[in-house]
Amino acid sequence: MTEPSPPLLKDSLDRDRMHGIARRMAALCPDFATDRFIAHVTDGLDQRGIMQRVRRIATGLHAALPGDFENNVRLLLAFAPEAGHPFVAIALSDYVALHGADRFEQSMAALKQLTRYGSSEFAIRPFLDRDLHRTLAVMEIWARDPDEHVRRLASEGCRPRLPWSFRLKALTADPAPVATILATLKADPSPYVRKSVANHLNDIAKDHPGWVLNLLAAWPRENPRTAWIVKHGLRTLIKQGDKRALTLIGAGAAPVIAVERFAVTPAAIVLGAPVAIEARLVSRADTSQRLVVDYAIHYVKKNGATSRKVFKFREIELEAGLGATLTTTQTVRDFTTRKHHAGRHRIELLVNGRTLAETAFDLALAAGAAATPVLTRND
Description:
Distance between the termini: 44 Å
Helix content: 40-55%
Order of helices and strands: HHHHHHHHHHHHHHHHEEEEEEEE
């Protein structure tokens, strides 16, 4: 029996939710044009994605509210604690972004309040795009706020590559203006904030790896909170085998080990099936070693060439003379971001950024179809 598909995120902003927003807004503002709002937000609703629905709520509020920006924001702030869903609160922030360009102080105060109910990370970005340094000056103050949601906004809102939003070209070109915010939050007590800082650093590392490495090398890493941010902020560089990044997390030395086994089973699969990957490592060192163990799959492309993708395996402390067996399972199936092709898929075992062993499996696209081996090369 096939299990039902999980609900789509966009369905959290359905017709019932829209009517609920209208009822509450009408209770707060008797002149709220309920019919106009409902007609606006439900027009073409089924064809709209989650962020399109967010925008439609924001523009619908503008169409239905009778007051000026100041009075309307006052109503939205009163509504926010009862928004009922974080994406409804994101729509309230979107209203501020759309209509508050010439009311900077009031907009900043509103976004600070609204982020407690649904992140204002998207709404702050137009302000950064228009007036980077003025907006960052406010966010530097937010980085010291007692509320973790406000502190997170200080980091998340100015990420250069924030998902679901446009890139901040000025910060993509030069990340230096955010250094104060990142340093302020480098040992934040909230995991919610620390995750944002790590993601922010990982964003920057894709364009300015040297800048990130220099910044983190200067941070004291004895604090476990800072050490966590450093490790997760460097994850892309670590997967790339960057020597400085590995050194910063204590895994820069060449591994002194023997690979007794590196295997994938089964040796041939069809698309949609799993493979099991096993590695047996034995220390040949006299002291303990910190090992960052990854594996890279060389996916066959349509033209027969390959594309390499690195996956995390395990981080271990391997004591002198001892061994460790690592196992993982990976299902090979199509995604919107990756379409698979039949052929020989090579797998590398990476330890502290170095390739120590290889194996492979054959992939067929359907049961009974033979996988045609293709030539592969070292990348």
